[in-house]
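call fold(seq) -> tokens
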Amino acid sequence: MSVPEKITRNEEITTAYFAFLDQHLADLLAEKDIEMLEINQIADRLFISPKHLSNTIKLTRGHHPCYFYDQKILDEARKLMLETTLSIAEIARKLTYNPSNFSKFFKKYSGLTPGQFRSHHKI
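ret:
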């Protein structure tokens, strides 16, 4: 019988952060939450300081927590653009963005506007 490996506190925090992000985005899309949380609010809900959260995620994953938050938002946006007929403005609002700001955010990280992305990936 093997002894289970002990999980480190850094791994525990990292796992909790990613689980929280997934649940928070699911709650936003289901309209259970009405606003996107900031990193300091997420840290509060995980019962750690924002600085500790930031340092831990950078240590375990190599990037600031915001990087992963943005990537998850982009993943959800892409999924909604490809799998639904929602307008870009409706998708933006579901993710608690002003449509204009959402288009800028999306283009900054993906290199395409949401409309260009949807057009390029239409079947």
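Helices lie at 9-29, 39-45, 50-61, 65-83, 88-94, 99-110, 114-120.
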